[in-house]
Specification:
Elements: E1 20-22, E2 32-36, H1 38-43, H2 54-60, E3 72-74, E4 78-80, E5 83-85, E6 93-99, E7 102-107, E8 122-123, H3 124-139, E9 146-158, E10 162-172, H4 178-186, H5 190-204, H6 214-236, E11 238-239, E12 261-262, H7 286-301, H8 307-315, H9 317-332, H10 342-356, H11 360-367, H12 375-378, H13 385-398, H14 405-413, H15 423-434, H16 439-449
Helix pairs in contact: 3-15, 3-16, 4-5, 4-7, 6-7, 6-8, 6-9, 7-8, 10-13, 15-16
The structure holds adenosine monophosphate and magnesium ion.
The site of magnesium ion has 3 residues, from loops.
């Protein structure tokens, strides 16, 4: 379809007025296209030629509205670092309408009623990070919001220094957060709360629309999706960095990419967010925080379902998380049938990796080629003895596998990515982009789409992170 043929809908606007505020985007000055995502365009039925037109850039800039658009910002609250903030909301994201089930949103398109002291903008570096990373998560098979396009500008935006503004056109099947429920619960606006729950069920859990005890069932499924997402983050080595309840998706998606990081050397205590001094959102604490956040959500639903039953649903979290995590780690190790003692093998491995300072992604990719010859694996760590000990257990465990070595290798190569977008790689893309060269963005986008493929041209990104860039921290404006 041509852009001019599209008719956007706005289902969220059917909710009570308190749920949102209408607002027009404030376009950036002198904008240009940095990247457009043809795969997402296909999902939206937009012709790919349209993506390279001037009109498309104006559309992403919020300067040209498609038919049916009625832009608005969503209202929500949230627990930030454990402290309740009664009103947050989209301070720099503006929803511009829906195509099929995809809700389009411009991030960085100016102030809204919820901007507080913020300027409503997103800088180029953080926009590159969000654009690439949401596609990378999708490429890894992890539920995530996605992005149609990234535009840059000459518009000056002040952070600690002057930078330039950018906009990411994000798309998602849901933008509702745990914090959206907390907003109405805190205000004791139970009518709105119920309308929101009904909307979220219809949007993300449509099979529950007519279910008995639908709010309880809804919560039960949010628990399951969240447990699954946490297991996926842990297995792939992803640290989100800001797991406030306003950054938790009711649909179980990864949302709001800020100071996130993939692990370099394995470190369960790694904290990617510079402002997180206590390590509340450290890598190893993410599954606990997932549960903490679900508990906050549970309290908001207590007017609509029995608290004891909600608590019972939440009590399933640990088992759901552990089962999924074990399953994913079993796949990463090439184990075709899981055994009870495999959890010990995994714990032993993680302890060994932490002690020997081994690159998480590189280890599993290297192990995907293992057939008894140990020298390549041994070279990844500081010492040999602990690695030998773990490999002895692994060799023993592999004897119980029913698949052939070739089958194991091929399955592991589909599970253990060759590349993840580590922060030093993103920084390389950002540094070049700030000089007007977007070729590294293009290359990382290609890698992000298929992280399992071998690519000779990008071999240097498949190794361990260079020492100078390992396990760094990022600021919240990232
Ligand atoms: P985040 O940590 O990025 O998820 O943001 C937390 C809250 O601050 C959300 O309500 C955002 O909309 C808001 N926010 C962050 N940056 C800005 C900004 N530059 N201008 C306005 N609001 C912002
Ligand atoms: Mg957020």
């Amino acid at each position: 379809m041509k852009l001019s043929e599209i008719k956007l809908t706005n289902p969220y606007l059917a909710l009570p007025d308190e749920c949102y505020t209408r607002v027009k985007p404030t376009p950036l000055e002198n904008v240009f296209l940095i990247h457009a995502n043809e795969e997402v365009a296909k999902l939206l039925d937009i012709d790919s030629e349209e993506l390279y037109s001037d009109a498309f850039v104006e559309f992403v800039n919020g300067a040209w509205q498609l038919e049916g658009s009625d832009p608005f910002a969503m209202c929500y609250a949230g627990h930030q670092f454990g402290h309740f903030v009664p009103r947050l909301g989209d301070g720099r994201a503006i929803n511009i309408g829906t195509i099929k089930q995809w809700h389009l949103q411009l991030k960085g398109a100016g102030q809204t009623r919820y901007s507080r002291s913020g300027d409503g903008r997103a800088v180029l570096r953080s926009s590159i990070r969000e654009y690439l990373m949401s596609e990378a998560m999708h490429g890894l098979g992890i539920e995530s919001t996605r992005a149609l396009a990234l535009i840059g500008s000459e518009h000056k935006v002040y952070r600690e220094v002057w930078e330039t503004g950018a906009i990411v056109l994000r798309v998602s099947p849901s933008w509702i957060r745990f914090g959206t429920f907390e907003y109405f619960s805190h205000k004791k606006r139970y009518e709105e709360l119920e309308a929101l729950a009904d909307y979220a069920i219809a949007e993300s859990y449509p099979h529950l629309v007519d279910a008995p005890n639908k709010y309880l069932q809804f919560f039960t499924e949010v628990v399951a999706r969240t447990a699954r997402l946490m297991a996926e983050w842990q297995a792939v080595g992803f640290n989100h960095g800001v797991m406030n309840t306003d950054n938790m998706s009711i649909a179980g998606l990864t949302i709001d990419y800020g100071p996130y990081a993939f692990l370099d050397d394995y470190d369960s205590k790694y904290i990617c967010n510079h402002t997180d001094q206590g390590g509340r959102y450290s890598f190893g604490n993410q599954p606990n925080i997932g549960e903490w956040n679900l508990q906050a959500l549970m309290h908001t639903l207590s007017p609509m379902a029995h608290i004891h039953k909600l608590e019972k649903a939440l009590a399933q979290y640990t088992e759901l998380y552990t089962d999924r995590y074990l399953q994913l780690m079993g796949q990463k190790l090439g184990l075709d049938v899981l055994k009870d003692e495999d959890l010990e093998l995994i714990k032993h491995l993680l302890g060994m990796m932490q002690g020997l300072q081994i690159d998480y992604t590189l280890f599993f990719r290297t192990l995907s080629h293992y057939e008894g010859e140990r020298s390549t694996l041994l070279s990844l760590g500081l010492f040999h003895k602990p690695m030998h000990e773990w490999l002895d257990s692994y060799d023993e465990r592999l004897k119980a596998n029913t698949s052939t070595t070739e089958e194991r290798h091929s399955a592991m190569l589909q599970t253990n990515p060759k590349y993840v977008l580590k922060n030093y790689m993103l920084q390389e893309a950002i540094t070049a982009a700030e000089d007007g060269d977007f070729s590294v963005v293009d290359r990382l986008f290609e890698i992000a789409k298929d992280p399992y493929a071998e690519r000779q041209a990008h071999e240097r990104w498949a190794g361990a992170t260079p020492d100078a860039f390992k396990n760094q921290k990022l600021s919240c404006s990232s």
